[in-house]
Design brief:
two-stranded antiparallel sheet; alpha+beta; globular; 156 residues
């Protein structure tokens, strides 16, 4: 159920909750947002695992207890923000980005700084079905990365 290293939801479990969230949002007519968070990592794989673990902890500290975090790939996290419109989503994403940017990660030879790129999309503002929501959030993470990283991008 939980990723053994980062202690966030595993991919399949998160996917189930994301599908459930879109069904509930359609049924009960409410907004929710999806964030994709990806480190702008330069570290080797041994160090990367520890950095990802710490990043997951920092993300948890910046979201509500009702928000859901999942590890969807080797280096990225998805976050479901129920009842969050675009402005709320931008605020939460920027808070997460800033928190990670200001944190000093511990390494063998001292501390180091890391950054993340964040892409997001809001249902139904930016998409009215799950596939398009994920595609739009994915486009936004690529936009953030292509513009130098350490950015939050959400469709206008």
């Amino acid at each position: 159920m939980f990723d053994i290293h980062t202690k966030v939801l595993e991919r399949d479990v998160f996917q189930y909750f994301l599908d459930l969230e879109i069904k509930k949002a359609m049924r009960y007519q409410y907004f929710f947002s999806l964030l994709i968070i990806e480190p702008d990592l330069t570290a080797d794989s041994g160090i990367r695992a520890e950095i990802l673990k710490t990043m997951a902890e920092l993300i948890k500290e910046e979201v509500r207890t009702t928000d859901m975090i999942g590890r969807m790939g080797e280096n990225n996290f998805y976050v479901i923000l129920p009842h969050a419109e675009t402005s709320n989503t931008l605020s939460v994403a920027e808070r997460i980005r800033s928190r990670i940017e200001s944190y000093t990660f511990t390494r063998k030879n001292g501390g180091a700084k890391e950054t993340i790129s964040v892409g997001g999309a809001c249902f139904p503002t930016h998409a009215n079905e799950l596939g398009n929501l994920v595609r739009n959030a994915t486009k936004m993470i690529y936009e953030a990365k292509n513009n130098g990283g350490n950015k939050v991008c959400i469709p206008n």
